Amino acid sequence: MSLTATDIRNLCLSALALGICALLPFGDNGYWLGLGVTIAMFTALATSWALFSGPTHYISLATAAFFGVGTYVTGLGIETLPFWALVILAGGIGAVLAALVGLATLRLSGVYFVIFTLGLAELVRQAITWVQNNSGQKGLYVLTDLDEAGIYWWLLGLTALVLLGGWMIGRSRLGFALRIIGDDETVAAHSGINTARAKVLLFMVPGAVAAMTGAILAPRYVYIEPSLAFAPILSFQVVIMALLGGASRLWGPLVGVIPFTFLLEAVSSNFPNQTTLVIGIAFLVIVYLLPKGFVGLLDAVLHRINKTGAV
Amino acid sequence: MDILITGILLGGTYALIAMGLNLQYGVARIMNLANGEILVAGGYFAFIAYTATQLSPILTIFLVAPLAFALNWLIYRVMLQPLVTRAKTRGQLETDSILATFGLSFIGVGLMLSFFGGDYFSYSFMAVPLELLGNTYGANRVISFVMAVLICGALYLWLNWSRPGLSIRAIATAPAAARLVGIDVKHLSALAFALGGAVTAVGGALISTYLTLDASTGVVFTLKALIIVIMGGVGDVRGTIVAALLLGILETVVASLLDPGLTLAAAYVMFLGILLFRPQGLFGKKPT
Amino acid sequence: MASSVLSLRGVTKRFGGLVAVNAMDFDVAEREVVGLLGPNGSGKSTTLNLVSGALPLSSGSVSLWGSRISGLPAQTINRKGVSRTFQLVRLLASMNVRENVVAGAVFGHRRRWGRDAYDHAEMLLEKVGLGGKGDMALGQLTYIDTKRVELARCLASDPKVLLLDEWLAGLNPTELQIGITLIKSLRDEGRTIILVEHVMDAIRSLCDRCVVMAAGAKIAQGTPSEVLSDKEVIRAYLGDDDA
User: Which of A108, A221, B16, B87 could bridge across to B203 with cysteines, CB 3.0–4.6 Å?
Assistant: First the structure.
């Protein structure tokens, strides 16, 4: 479909916002840049998560697994391949892995999918630990000349790509098919949609993005070991951020990522033992108070304003 | 042979835990992902009772069961029933209950961390060798197994022969029809959920006699219970028991022949096989 | 019946021990309207589900223009030109009326996308009597209008065979007349139609032929007046005492 004037305006504004974000490393090189890296990372992860889970309502907890695989791609390949090639390679591997997981679970009901993805990170972690134990190698050193600012720019680029890709998918047949599937899978199948294929195809997006994010962040860890790379908490954080913001809009997750990153940052520096409690409470807040996220709240408020304005 | 018996002993307790989850999912339709935390809490209770007052875990379970029952009943009434009421579709209830019980699970871990810290806990209860068929096993494992068998048996009889038990099975099979024949679905769902929680907590108390637990191990047991329930078939007592024993044996085989670090991975591979070839469960009828 | 569009041979569906559809045989010729009748629970809707691919067959076969479609997934059957409505209307809750119709046009038998799909949807809305209501939310629609949306979605892929599951049920007499005229016009466009129906007026005025089912099996077939006076059909509907 062709672009309307509004589309072009929105694209220009987004590009401008991105340009401003890219200036961050020139202003600050310490605390704020670190926070910027975290926010960029979670925006890429949560937005790509919502691309799949928003329309389909499948809750994926596989983020940590794909992320960990990505860090290992960088860890294993950094000596032989250039960094950019590793990021692309990680994306490819993440997409293939996601396709395999999707093929096994997405034709079944949502519960199977949640359970399977919940343990996926643990499965891969145990497998890698076992291989390492048997080969006598404990962890991997990732030594590059990529500094924090470089990582930030890589992540920002990936985030831009995810947002652009998400926007294009939203306008594509695939995006439309996913909305139909999310509403009623039986109707979707009887309208000629290959539901299993559509779901698997779209699930490959968060798989690839999470693996690429892991690959980009690997140099930050310097030393990679399974329990660090496959920390399951990451999957839950992504779910919370995406749902808190609202998975029904492309920019929804971003609205959740920023406040929740600050909140977790504040909690973990002041009450380091209470982060699990905060995550638990966040889940309950989402279910009981904000079932449609901040986006839904905003829509409701706007709706009310329109109504009273009209009277 | 040694491995087989150790596996069966482990599987017995697994069966108990999975039975608890199965009651909650099959009847109350809540996929309770905080199940593992209830188990760990049961374990903590037994640990404290034993270290503080030397109370035998075998007796502690008579305290744990009513407490866990009350707690789970409250959780269902206050937090989960509103979700059941507001859900328009089965899928929405599934998503909501998954997110809500994840929340409960994290809160459970958070609370236990702040009360007991993150250390492993274990105590030595009846850690004496017992000879069985020429091999020796920990007496605590054997006793836990016997208790699990007794409780599973009692539960099975209750479900098949008592009036509330039959009503609960009716709800599991056909919730809408159960309502039509005058069964109080709301009340019995809460009952089943609470009962499931009590059974799981008792399983936790038993398992703490021979396994080391800590505040955040709950999720591992949740996963195992989920795998067992799906493998055995939702609402299928016989399937649950067989699946639990299979998982117990598989884990023991992998742990002793390959690597103890791979037990969950092995359980997962088995789960994947089930998903690919028999998603309706071991004994489920094929929906042709 | 060399020119039959759809033929069922020994179509059987078992749920556990229950045989819901037992060895059904019948053919539907091109541009024919065939009524599938029978008391509640006789297996009509299940038969339709077997044809559309919503359920897999236990045995037997369904062919479309001589090539087997049973065993294919629902989306493939839809793409081959078989489209259906549901006994309980199923619409896409997050979309407005127009998008619901577009949903039927994008992936089915004849595909449209973008401007083309939206124009096509607008034309269909006009045709089913919903002109100008494309922007409405589903919640604002009356019952018959939801049925119209579903029919428009079903027509959006330009299907050759239409399966209508009690599409006329629950309409008042005026609405019923509109509905009957609409279905007639679809036949005149060259579509082949199977309808599961209880409304006798509709059956008499619409159907070229009827197939009557009882307890999962075919007990009669013929013109509406033939089958409605058939002894066995009357017995199936009213029970032995009244026959």
Answer: B16
Question: Rounded to an integer, what distance in angstroms lies between the CA atom of residue B274 and that of residue A104?
Answer: 10
User: Is C16 an 8 Å CB contact of chain B?
Assistant: yes
Distance from C-alpha of A58 to C-alpha of A179, rounded to nearest angstrom: 12
Q: Which residues of chain A have pLDDT under 70?
A: 1-2, 138-139, 309-311
A286-299 pLDDT per residue, tens:
888 888 888 888 88
Domains of chain B: 2-277 (1.10.3470)
**Chain C: touching chains (3 or more CB pairs < 8 Å):** A, B
The 10s digit of each residue's pLDDT in B121-175 is: 777 666 666 666 666 667 778 778 888 888 888 888 888 888 888 887 788 777 7
* pLDDT band with cut points at 50, 70 and 90 for residue C1: very low
pLDDT at residue C13, rounded to an integer: 92
Only one residue has tokens 């083309």, namely C116
Parallel, antiparallel or unpaired: strands C209-214 and C217-222: antiparallel
Architecture in CATH for domain A5-310 = Orthogonal Bundle (1.10)
| DSSP element (H, E) containing C219 | strand C217-222
Chain C residues whose C-beta is within 8 A of a chain A C-beta are 52-54, 73-75, 78-79, 83-84, 86, 90-95, 102-104, 106-109, 111, 113-115, 153, 157
pLDDT, one tens digit per residue, over C157-166 is 999 999 999 9
SS3 C153: helix
User: In this prediction, does ipTM exceed 0.85?
Assistant: yes
With beta carbons under 8 A apart, name residues in chain C contacting A183: 92-95
- Report the C-alpha gap between B230 and B228 in whole angstroms: 5
A129 touches chain B (CB under 8 A): yes
> Does the beta-carbon distance from B103 to A123 stay under 8 Å?
no
> Looking at the complex, does the CB of residue B221 fall below 8 Å from at least one CB of chain A?
no
Kind and range of the H or E element at C20? Answer: strand C18-29
Q: What is the pTM of this model?
A: 0.88
Q: Please, are residues C72 and C22 in contact by the beta-carbon 8 Å criterion?
A: no
How do the domains of chain C map onto residue ranges?
Answer: 4-81+160-242, 95-158
Strand ranges for chain A from DSSP E: 140-141, 223-224
The two tokens of residue C66 are 């001589």
Query: Sheet holding C161-165: strands in order across?
Result: C82-84, C161-165, C192-196, C33-37, C209-214, C217-222
Q: Residue B288: its chain C contacts at CB < 8 A?
A: 14, 56, 58
CA distance linking residue B267 with residue B269, whole number of Å: 6
Q: Does A227 touch chain B (CB under 8 A)?
A: no
- Check A109 against B94: CB less than 8 A apart: yes
Among 3.30.300.20, 3.40.630.40, 3.40.50.300, 3.90.550.10, name the CATH number for the domain at C4-81+160-242: 3.40.50.300
Q: In A, which residues are within 8 Å of B276 by CB distance?
A: 104
**Cα nearest neighbour of B216 on chain A:** A276
Checking if the pLDDT of B286 tops 50, the result is no
Radius of gyration for chain A, computed over Cα atoms and rounded to the nearest angstrom: 20
Measured in degrees and rounded to the nearest 5, phi and psi for residue C196 equal -90, 125
Residues of B in contact with C56 (CB under 8 A): 288
Q: Where are the domains positioned within chain A?
A: 5-310
Read off φ and ψ for residue B32, nearest 5 degrees: -85, 100
